[in-house]
Amino acid sequence: MKARSLSQVVEMVPDGSSLMIGGFMGVGSPETIVDELVRQRKKDLTVIANDTARPGIAIGKLISANAVRKAVVSHIGLNPETQKQMLLGKIIVELVPQGTLIECIRAGGCGLGGVLTRTGIGTIVENDARKVEIDGVEFLLNKPLRADFALVHAFLADYLGNLSYALTARNFNPVIAMAAETVIVDADHIVPVGVIGPDHVVTPAPLVDYLVTH
């Protein structure tokens, strides 16, 4: 793990990158990293996340800044700007059921070949999907998801990069930290090694590449 300033870690993100971003309607999202992505005018990004939040909040800021080319999310219902851009053809939105989405990310992190699910059987979703039959039952095969970068928000990080999360702000963060080539973490508090008890470490240090210093 390497400590870097906010501007330095965002400078490492090229235009056109794929980003997994933690958070659920902004809760648990790395707001400072998102703000810096907007400030540095990153563009043509693919965002893989639970949602696009709301205008002015977390991923919603990237949408309003026209920085996102494609969003792979479970819903966009509370962000009218995402809906508007999708209808105008400015952004590609790939909607994935929430459980399927997080399992595909987990599969990407664990090196699995994909996720089999019944969700979508009998709907238009199955038209372009690969089907697998097991014991006479049809499943849809969803491929694993990985990204160039995972942008993670944690409550605590120690000097080695071990992470702990606060309540529901944990959400997608630990899973995306396993499924990206480079993991960048913004933590509310950076503490000495030993302050986070071993049983409270959720994301271990070897998964973390960069920790933002303020």
Describe this structure in words.
The protein is α/β, with parallel strands linked by helices. It has a single domain, classed as 3-Layer(aba) Sandwich (Glutaconate Coenzyme A-transferase), CATH 3.40.1080. The chain is 21% helix and 31% strand. It contains six helices and twelve strands. The longest helix is centred in the middle third of the chain and has 13 residues, at 98-110. The two termini are 16 Å apart. The model has no long low-confidence stretch (mean pLDDT 96).
Distance between the termini: 16 Å
User: CATH H level: which superfamily?
Assistant: Glutaconate Coenzyme A-transferase
> What percent of the residues sit in helical stretches (DSSP H or I)?
10-25%
With helices defined by DSSP (H or I, 4 residues minimum), what is the helix count? 6
CATH architecture: 3-Layer(aba) Sandwich
CATH class: Alpha Beta
Number of domains: 1
User: What characteristic shape results from the CA principal axes?
Assistant: globular
SSE order in H/E notation? Answer: EHEHEHEHEHEEEEEHEE
What value does the average pLDDT take?
96
**Overall number of strands:** 12
Low-confidence stretches: none
- Over the alpha carbons, how many angstroms does the gyration radius reach? 17 Å
Note the beta-strand portion. Answer: 25-35%
Largest sheet: 9 strands, mixed
Structural class: alpha/beta
